[in-house]
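Lecture 7, part B: from sequences to assemblies.

Below are the input chains for today's worked example.
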Amino acid sequence: MATIADVAKRAGVAPSTVSRVLNESGYVSKETRRRVLAAVKELNYVPNVHAERLRTGTSKTIAFVVTEFTNPFWAEVARGVEDVVWQNGYDLILRNTAGDPERELASIRGFRRRQVDGAIFPWLQEGWAELKALDDEGVSIVVLGHAPEEYGFDVFTIDNVRGGYLATEHLLQLGHKRIAFISADFTRERERGYRMAMEKYGVTPDETLVFREYAAPELERGEIVVRRLLDQDDPPTAIFAYNDVTAIGVWMELEKQGLRVPDDVSLVGFDDIPMASLIRNGLTTVALPHYEYGRTAAEFLLRRIAERSGSSGRSVTMQPELIIRGSTRPC
Amino acid sequence: MATIADVAKRAGVAPSTVSRVLNESGYVSKETRRRVLAAVKELNYVPNVHAERLRTGTSKTIAFVVTEFTNPFWAEVARGVEDVVWQNGYDLILRNTAGDPERELASIRGFRRRQVDGAIFPWLQEGWAELKALDDEGVSIVVLGHAPEEYGFDVFTIDNVRGGYLATEHLLQLGHKRIAFISADFTRERERGYRMAMEKYGVTPDETLVFREYAAPELERGEIVVRRLLDQDDPPTAIFAYNDVTAIGVWMELEKQGLRVPDDVSLVGFDDIPMASLIRNGLTTVALPHYEYGRTAAEFLLRRIAERSGSSGRSVTMQPELIIRGSTRPC
DNA sequence: CGTTAATGTGGAAACGATTCCAGTATACCA
DNA sequence: TGGTATACTGGAATCGTTTCCACATTAACG
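Predicted structure of the full complex, as structure tokens:
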């Protein structure tokens, strides 16, 4: 591989001149520039990025940590992050923790060694203190979702409360009152939105309509829900499921039992997975702006790196969108 | 940030000695080692990775390019790659091309600048020549899926032909003879497997049963398929869809028209998406070893990097697995 | 007891860029 | 005509490691 010295020799100038040409800094005559550029082309020269980075003390690298990018949520966010990071000439190094605290810590330490310029982290199991240490060393940090207040990280959030609110409000506006909610252990915010909407519309939620058999496959497949629904004297006329997969599971089970959506029961999901638009006349659901989420966070991070400013404890919230399809109708 | 010189001074030794301790190379006395390690800890020293890499001429970085990691296929593969790459102390830099030739080329050039040690690429639109050039410069390359013969890349493949074969054979063994196949423009291999199985079992495929309305949403939703199926004098008793999403679409449509799976029609999908096990009694499908695919390719690449051996034109094929669930039964 | 081998250590030269400084040539202005 | 600003260039230091070489010291051995 040709070095800057080779180029310099070939062009009959000093290495510093080559550097000036390539970085467009300082004075270079038209003629010298031409000669240098020609030599660069002839030798097929590319600067050694390690030397560059050693000298300038920057790494032009952003780290992005996710818990599980097999999860479509993170995959979409990663797309957004990747796009802006590369557009700005940075590398994106990716790390999947699988929720393992060991890996979290290993990642943080690794990033310190690698002197990344910035990093985007999700909620961590442990490791907040270490992350803060990274921040203190001048590595820009942005946290996705939620972070302990006391560290003052910049936090980007998608408003899940509002998502839950929108879904529930939609059903309420259609005249439904007995609205079931299927929750999971990680969906407290969506549940809060559900309750806020109910309250706002003057309906006190019937606690027997809130399903909590967290992550049981019978729940995902809708068996429990539908069984209990059929048992009720006064069954719900609408169901809001914490995600689309569960909503579709419920839908399948309802049909198995001879109930029709939306004629007998209205159904709302959450996430807007690709299949949501394919089932029957489509599943009404709440879409989160994943891609934009990643973009915005990455843009913010890059700006902070450029400005060399530290964490400010700012927080940005992005809004979900209600997508009305064929699974809901007036009560 | 503390440097190796700081550590050396604090421990009262020379930088070279510190280096020897840290890299466990050459002779170091027990006592010196202790002192150096203590100093390292006290100063919270981490070696500067850029200096390291500049000096050693290695980057400890692997690039992984995918067309679209929002696609669960690639997300899974990425998981596999990521796991082994990190386990071996390498960085993974990730690039999503979205099938854009511009981005392909930009990535390849970028990797040259960044002096990655190795790269894993999918099928490219263009850019094969540039990739070959990278290979010639000593960057280890592995291609996923398929590559032009003439370049002699090492290629890793998942056997889609066999997948198609397994699915079809399963139906044939259940006694089905009129088996429809729903294809897409990128599923020629699966179709070949379908035809191979039919031939093997002495059944000549009825070309009216091969659906080719590529990627039309009506096809995905199963409308065309079911409509045409009902029109036939001698309708198929089984359907093999090129992927699970389409299979489920067909399933939905069949039910809408009053046909039952598997009682009236057996159904086989492809991919084994999470929802495949949730629909009714489950969708019989073909699972591809995505994660293992990524792992194996990455392990292979790392081994080649360690051995400093170039491409050899080898090719490794990984086998799919038939997963029998409730959507198929004897004819 | 002299010779050779095994340990242990420090000094200094790379690696390949950027950047500061000094120096020269030309242009401009009073 | 002399002084100063502007344009242009080369030399050398520097970033923080690794690694080669030289030099001691100690151990082993015939």
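Note for the exam: The first strand of chain A starts at residue 61 and ends at 66. Keep this in mind when comparing with the next example.
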